[in-house]
Every structure is written in structure tokens, then in C-alpha cells.
Specification:
alpha/beta, 5-stranded mixed β-sheet, globular, binds beta-D-galactopyranose, transport
């Protein structure tokens, strides 16, 4: 049974109902001269995107200095810890990066972020974003972030020359991957390279999606799918089989070094979001000749999405400049400067498609295609709040060691936060 993009997004987020936190930014006597922006875009493939956005911001706001408070580390695992301390200590930046969806749940509840509804109305954004995305970021009528992009999580990256030398084509299912893996290992290559814990969770969600299908996957996060059911346990078993064909015993330090193993030809595949496209381009590689990509096994025509967005923290030292930063993030110019560098597609539906080439030309078309099924990422904040994600992280680090699928399923189900 097909599920439309709009339908899935609506179903996935219908249960979001949290106490809103109203209030606008305090009026400024003097215009702000600087804006401190907190993100985790410090590494290769990410900082280039941020730089392009900042350059466009500077063009529109020559009087405002950009203070880059980026903290390195893929998926923001380190940055989010640093940020939490700052927010608790009443020391917010002017704007911080967060994923659209449930990742902001606790911050909204704690009153850390302002409602930006007035900015949305002023800028006319509401009908410029996909309806499902607006629904995902609306909590009790309030909107606390401005999405700058849409990333796709479920992608399998490879080098055509490596596959040619192995006589292989990319696997369409995880069973295909497992069938290839022994042959790849016999040739002395790692079938799938992997990095730290968050990349293992990223792999997990996409194995579950690929084996269970979009609808059952979506139910894992809404309560509609029983974690201890036979199909889920079987999918978890596939995850352990896949992991056994990876270099998880000696994982790379972060997602870029894991991809480097594919670049140098010591690994055949890496499963990563489309920020990998930006990174591979920084290596001087050209799409289709130097690197290729397919939907991760079993997920053809499914978009496992996430969206980077920016907030206005309550008590931001420079709220006037912060609002200008948010206007930049939500603008066509800003999104069309940022996304071609970042390896993502614009969140706005009225951006200039001609600016998206190579891998991104196909991504823009697939995202806009009404037949594409959309589900939300666990690892990147769409479908589960931070509390549940933290419990899943703990359970996963045990699961990766003991491979006890039933115990993992029980721990994940028990950790669910119903918010
Ligand atoms: C995601 C983020 C992406 C990219 C990736 C790797 O969480 O949304 O923009 O930065 O982490 O760090």
C-alpha cells in the first residue's frame, strides 16, 4: 500500500502537542552589530556550506559581524552537549542549529526557544515550505525554528572503479549486500565502512527502513509497530549481520574518515546522508565518474529525511541580528547559496532548481516527486526526542557488542517518551 509524502509526514507528527512558549524578542534601541551562531558545521563538507550562507548573510547585512561558534563533530553529538550546558547556564548564543521535529521537544518545554510565528507571517514562509514540514515544526500553534534544508539519510556511497574491479553493482536489498560481502572481504576490502556510535545508529535506522518498509518503520516511532514483533527482530538480526561485515571493531573517528575508506578503495560501501556528496566534492571527486550513490538497500523511492534549522533562543544577546540571520536562513537567496554547497536540497519549494547539479539535480527532483514516500530520521532528530534518543544510544552500544536483538528491542520500547 502506497503512502503519500504528505500523508506520512502528517501521520508521523500528528501526535506532537507540547506546551508552547510564546513571546517575541525584546525591542532593541540600537541595531545589533554582531550575531553569534552555534552549529556543528566545522568539518570538511559542512563548513563550506556554512561559509556560503554566511557570505550571503554578509551581503545582505554588511553591518553585522558573524561570530562562528561551531563545535566540530558529526551529527552534532559534541555540539549538542556543549549547547545544553550553555542553555542551562543562561548563556545562549544568538541562534543555534537544531533538527526540525522532535529534537526540539525538551528545549521548547524548558522555554529555551522563542516562538517565531510572527517572523513566518512577516516573511510569508508558511506557504513556501512543504505542508508536512510545517506540521513537523508546529507545536501548539507555535513554530520555534527556521528550516534551511532537507537532507536525505538513506544513501549508499561507492566508487565506480572499486565496484568495477570487484565485478559488482550496488545492492538493491540487504540480502544482496550480504551475498556480495563475502566476495568483497575475500578480495581484502571491508564491505561497509562505519564510524562512531551515531553512524551505527544511522545504519540501524536505514536497515530497519530497508527491511521493514516505510510504513512499518514509521510505526516504530509512533507506537504503531511492536518492537518485539517477529519482523522487527528479524530486521535487527539483519542489522547485526550487516555490522559483522563492517569495520565496527575498529570504527573510524567520524563520518569523513569512514568515507575516506571508500575514497581510498579499502572499503566498498558507506551508508551516509547526502552531506557525503559535499564532502566527496571537497576531495576533488566528480559525481558518477569519481563516486556514485544509490538509495540504501530496500529504500528505493523512499526519502528518509531530516532538516537542519535555526532557532532564536530566549535571552539571545543580539535578538535583532538573530532575526536577520533567521531571515537569511529562510530566504530563497540564502537557501540557494547554502544547499548546493552543503549537499542538501532547499526546504523552500520556490528555490531555483537550476542551481542544483550532479547528485543534487536528482535529489531535488526526487524530493519534489509526489510519488516519493517520506519518513523521518531517528539519528537526526525528526522522529524521537533527545531523551528517547539517549536511551536508544545506550541500548545500541550494548547491542553492537552482545548482538542480543530481543534485549535491544525491549530496551528501546521501554525507553519511549510519549510526548
Ligand atoms: C546531521 C546534520 C547534517 C550534517 C550531518 C553530519 O545531523 O543534519 O547537516 O551536518 O549531521 O555532521
Amino acid at each position: 500500500m502506497g503512502v503519500s509524502r504528505r500523508g506520512l509526514l502528517a501521520a508521523g507528527f500528528a501526535a506532537l502537542a507540547l506546551p508552547g512558549c510564546g513571546g517575541g524578542a525584546a525591542p532593541q534601541a540600537e541595531p545589533d552589530r554582531k550575531v553569534e551562531v552555534f552549529s556543528w558545521w566545522a568539518g570538511p563538507g559542512e563548513k563550506e556550506g556554512l561559509e556560503a550562507l554566511v557570505a550571503d548573510f554578509a551581503k545582505h547585512n554588511p553591518g553585522i559581524a558573524f561570530d562562528n561558534a561551531a563545535v566540530a563533530g558529526g551529527a552534532g553529538t559534541i555540539a549538542r552537549t556543549v549547547l545544553a550546558t550553555r542553555l542551562q547556564n543562561d548563556d545562549p548564543p544568538d541562534s543555534y542549529q537544531a533538527h526540525a521535529g522532535r529534537e526540539l521537544t525538551e528545549d521548547i518545554r524548558a522555554g529555551y526557544v522563542e516562538d517565531l510565528r510572527d517572523l513566518y507571517e512577516e516573511q510569508g514562509w508558511l506557504d513556501k515550505l512543504p505542508g508536512g514540514l510545517v506540521q513537523a515544526i508546529t507545536v501548539n500553534g507555535a513554530i520555534h525554528c527556521v528550516p534551511v534544508n532537507i537532507h536525505r539519510s538513506n544513501l549508499l556511497w561507492y566508487r565506480p572503479q572499486t565496484l568495477a574491479s570487484l565485478g559488482l553493482t550496488p545492492p538493491a536489498t540487504w540480502a544482496d549486500f550480504l551475498a556480495q560481502a563475502d566476495a568483497i572481504a575475500k578480495r581484502g576490502l571491508t564491505p561497509l565502512s562505519i564510524g562512531p556510535g551515531w553512524t551505527q545508529k544511522h545504519l540501524l535506522e536505514n536497515v530497519l527502513l530497508g527491511v521493514l518498509g516505510a510504513q512499518t518503520y514509521a510505526g516504530l516511532w509512533t507506537g504503531g509497530t511492536d518492537w518485539s514483533s517477529a519482523p522487527v527482530l528479524a530486521a535487527l538480526q539483519v542489522f547485526t549481520d550487516v555490522l559483522a561485515r563492517s569495520d565496527v571493531a575498529t570504527p573510524a573517528g567520524d563520518w569523513q574518515p569512514a568515507l575516506d575508506r571508500v575514497v581510498t578503495g579499502s572499503a566498498a560501501y558507506n551508508l551516509m546522508g547526502d552531506w557525503a556528496d559535499a564532502y566527496l566534492r571537497t576531495k576533488g571527486l566528480v559525481f558518477t565518474e569519481g563516486y556514485g550513490v544509490v538509495a540504501s538497500p530496500g529504500t528505493d523511492r523512499v526519502y528518509n529525511f531530516l532538516s537542519d534549522s535555526f532557532t532564536l533562543p530566549r535571552g539571545a544577546p543580539h535578538p535583532g541580528a538573530a532575526r536577520k540571520w533567521l531571515v537569511e536562513c529562510g530566504s530563497v537567496d540564502g537557501q540557494d547559496a547554502f544547499n548546493p554547497q552543503k549537499g542538501s536540497v532547499p526546504a523552500r519549494t520556490d528555490a531555483d532548481r537550476a542551481k542544483y547539479t550532479g547528485y543534487l539535480a536528482a535529489a531535488v527532483a526526487e524530493w519534489a516527486d509526489a510519488g516519493t514516500r517520506v519518513v523521518g530520521s531517528l539519528t537526526h532528530g525528526v522522529v524521537a526526542d533527545t531523551a528517547w534518543n539517549a536511551k536508544i544510544d545506550t541500548a545500541l552500544s550494548t547491542f553492537v557488542q552482545d548482538r542480543d536483538a530481543a534485549a535491544f528491542a525491549r530496551a528501546v520500547a521501554a525507553g519511549r517518551t510519549v510526548s
